[in-house]
């Protein structure tokens, strides 16, 4: 099991993405860099913001880097940010990502209509995240 957030978790997630025929089909024409920002919650074990920088194209995740820092990732096509606890809720299936984006639980910078055009791919990304065998930094050990 991988601890979220961590390099190992991100690697497991990318393996799930790149092994998914459903995602490949849904995102076949989606080309973008996406930064995922897990905002600090020191009381939960996330002392500082964590920036993950990814690139998607041809229905695959071309690469993903963990904890790249804001400078490297802030100019991505899309930046999706939320507190750690909100990301945990998304991964556990408690927060719907599209509703979260529309409600402001997940803050999105970039062209939202483009992201919404790929709602099936977005749903598949979240489904795949929920299938990564995960523990969380704030889970009791």
Give structural attributes.
141 residues, alpha/beta, two-stranded parallel ribbon, 7 strands, 39% helix
Describe the structure.
The chain has helices at residues 7-18, 21-26, 70-73, 84-91, 97-103, 112-117, 119-130; strands at residues 2-4, 32-39, 50-57, 60-65, 78-83, 107-109, 134-136. By secondary structure, the protein is an alpha/beta fold. A hairpin with a 2-residue loop joins strand 3 (50-57) and strand 4. The protein contains 7 helices and 7 strands. The mean pLDDT is 91. It is globular. The strands form 2 sheets. It has a 5-stranded mixed β-sheet with strand order 4-3-2-5-6. The chain has a two-stranded parallel sheet with strand order 1-7.
How is the secondary structure organized here?
Layout: E1 2-4, H1 7-18, H2 21-26, E2 32-39, E3 50-57, E4 60-65, H3 70-73, E5 78-83, H4 84-91, H5 97-103, E6 107-109, H6 112-117, H7 119-130, E7 134-136
Parallel strand pairs: 1-7, 2-5
Antiparallel strand pairs: 2-3, 3-4, 5-6
In short:
The chain is 39% helix and 26% strand. The protein contains 7 helices and 7 strands, in the order βααβββαβααβααβ.
Strand proportion:
25-35%
Tally of DSSP helical segments: 7
Oligomer: single chain
Order of helices and strands: EHHEEEHEHHEHHE
Unreliable spans are none
Main beta-sheet annotation: 5 strands, mixed
N-end to C-end Cα span:
13 Å
């Amino acid at each position: 099991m991988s601890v979220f957030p961590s390099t190992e978790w991100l690697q497991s997630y990318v393996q799930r993405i790149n092994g998914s025929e459903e995602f490949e089909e849904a995102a076949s024409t989606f080309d973008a860099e996406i930064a995922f920002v897990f905002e600090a919650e020191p009381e939960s074990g996330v002392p500082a913001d964590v920036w993950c920088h990814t690139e998607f194209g041809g229905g695959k995740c071309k690469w993903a880097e963990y904890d790249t820092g804001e400078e490297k990732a802030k100019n991505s096509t899309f930046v999706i940010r939320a507190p750690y606890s909100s990301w945990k809720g998304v991964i556990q299936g408690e927060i719907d990502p599209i509703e979260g984006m529309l409600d402001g639980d997940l803050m999105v910078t970039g062209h939202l209509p483009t992201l919404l055009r790929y709602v099936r791919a977005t749903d598949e990304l979240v489904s795949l995240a929920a299938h990564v065998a995960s523990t969380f930094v704030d889970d009791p050990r």
